Amino acid sequence: MAVGANETVEITAEEYRFDPGRVVVRGAGRGAPLRISMRNEGKLAHNLHVREGERELASMPSFPPGQERSLSASLPPGEYDFVCTVADHEDLGMVGKLQVR
Question: Is 52 helix (H, G, I), strand (E, B) or coil?
Fold first, then answer.
């Protein structure tokens, strides 16, 4: 999935995956904040944390199924991971890649 700097990245969370699992954002590293909206369509609580290596850059708290949350972050151009940190969700494959250009 590719979006422009002023567009919202829309992600769906389910058991144990994000859709889409790879996102490219063009122009967000040039001062425009990145906005991510996530809808939980699973049966368990999920969250989303944006990381660069081990460093956490942005996050949204865990929330129950059927709800939607969002976050905004200013990220320089680069490659980032997004993960769900609930229990062992990350180990079970609930991870994604975010590229900011």
Answer: strand
Nearest C-alpha neighbor of 51 from the set 78, 17, 87: 78
One-letter identity of residue 96: G
Phi, psi for residue 36 in degrees, rounded to 5:
-120, 130
Phi and psi based region of residue 27 (left: phi greater than 0; alpha: psi -120 to 50; beta: remaining)? left
Please, what are the domains in the chain? 2-100 (2.60.40.420)
Number of helices (H), then strands (E), belonging to the chain: the values are 0, 10
Tokens linked to 83: 């993960």
**Whether pLDDT at 47 is above 70:** yes
Query: What is each CA distance from 87 to 20, 34, 45, 62, in whole angstroms?
Result: 21, 26, 10, 11
Q: What's 33's DSSP letter?
A: P
Is the pLDDT at 99 greater than 70? The verdict is: yes
